[in-house]
Each structure stands twice: as C-alpha cells, then as structure tokens.
Amino acid sequence: MLEDGEQAGKQVRAGPSAFNLRRDLHDLWLMVSESLISLDVLEQAAHAKHDREFESSIRQIRERNSRQRTWLRTRLRQAAPQTLVVPS
Prior knowledge:
Structural class: mainly alpha
Radius of gyration: 18 Å
Largest sheet: 2 strands, antiparallel
Number of helices: 2
Number of strands: 2
Distance between the termini: 44 Å
C-alpha cells in the first residue's frame, strides 16, 4: 500500500499552488527532452540495422514528444509570471 504523498515510488507534490505547477511542468519538460535524446540513439541503431519499420515508429514517437515538449514550454511560459511575481 502506498503512503500519503507517494505514487509508485515517486513523490506527489501536495497543493494546487502555482509554484508546484510550474515545477511539475518543468519536470515533465525535462523528461520529454530526455526521451527525445534517447530516440536519437534508437534512430541511429534502427538506421544501422536497416530496420525501416522501427525508424518509422521512432519518427512517430518523436513527433508526438516534440508536440508535448512544445505544449509544456507554452504552459511554463504562462505559469512563470504567476510564480515569480509577488503581488504587492
């Protein structure tokens, strides 16, 4: 059974604060960026093996991940002012 604040070995941040949202979006952006680097390596391997089907699958995944990264960056830009500017 999972403890409070844990989900499958990962800490879940409590509270709907804007700072937590920005931090979560940033974490997701980093994960997507890492996956794109991994896809570069896999694409090179598929190319070396002349596996066209695998290359095609990698291209589709890359397109999806690129869209996700673009969306996350947009959301980060929207959330940043709310987390960095202190109301007076």
